[in-house]
Amino acid sequence: MARYCDYCHSYLTHDTPSVRKSHVVGKNHLRLVADYYCNKARQTRQPLLQRKRSTRKQRLRDRRTGTAAAAAVPPRRIPLHCDSNRTKRLLQSQTTAYEHHSTAPPPLVTLYRGSPGFAKVFVPECRLDTAQSAQQDRLPQRANRRAADPATTTAAEPARSRDRQPNPHPHSALPPPRVLARWATAPPLVYADDTPAHTTVRDITRRLGRR
């Protein structure tokens, strides 16, 4: 037999746990339960027997007493205080600080500022993403596109997208550190000297040739 809900005054479709659970958590059931207990609480606060009606003399006496008491008590005055200049400046500084904080750069930008490759990630003009390349060349993007294809390479391609090839044989050698050339008693400025090795090899070769 279907279960009957005392709060909703209706029968459930089936007497199963799932149907009961869905009915108990329903908005209509919760609203009716709340109304039921609110009405019960309101009934317990109100007396069962209504107060007897007072006579005309008693009503006049109560009215005179209330009027005299109201006339004896002066109306309460609510003072109005304007903000001082110091308070206004403080509020203005707080508003300015809040606006500055709201327009502050993101934490990642502050954290990685000055690191290598910062501009290629956080500066929109230097990003090397697909959207910017598509906006520059205005060509259809295909999955098999090659960078060295002359048909798809534009003349306005920025130089920053090209990889820099390091030179393994520089033309000029780096100067020695200034710390080594500061004092006269510093060690010689020759970092790799093969003279002792060549001398040793030459002596051994001569000895073997004599034998």
TrEMBL record:
Example GO biological process term? mRNA 5'-splice site recognition
GO cellular component terms, semicolon-separated: U1 snRNP
- SUPFAM superfamilies xrefs: beta-beta-alpha zinc fingers
Name by which UniProt lists this protein: LAMI_0G06480g1_1
Q: Does the keyword Ribonucleoprotein apply?
A: yes
Origin: domain of life: Eukaryota
Biased composition, Basic residues: where in the chain? Answer: 51-62
**Molecular function GO labels:** pre-mRNA 5'-splice site binding; zinc ion binding
Which intervals hold domain Matrin-type?
A: 3-35
Region: Disordered, residue numbers: 51-72, 132-178
Q: What is one Pfam family matched by this protein?
A: zf-U1
Gene3D superfamilies per the UniProt record, alphabetical: Classic Zinc Finger (3.30.160.60)
Q: Where in the cell is it found?
A: Nucleus
Report the InterPro entries cross-referenced here.
Matrin/U1-C_Znf_C2H2, Matrin/U1-like-C_Znf_C2H2, U1-CZ_Znf_C2H2, U1_snRNP-C, Znf_C2H2_sf
Keyword annotations of the record: Metal-binding, Nucleus, Ribonucleoprotein, RNA-binding, Zinc, Zinc-finger
Residue ranges with Pro residues bias? 167-178
Record keyword RNA-binding present = yes
Biased segments, Low complexity type: 149-158
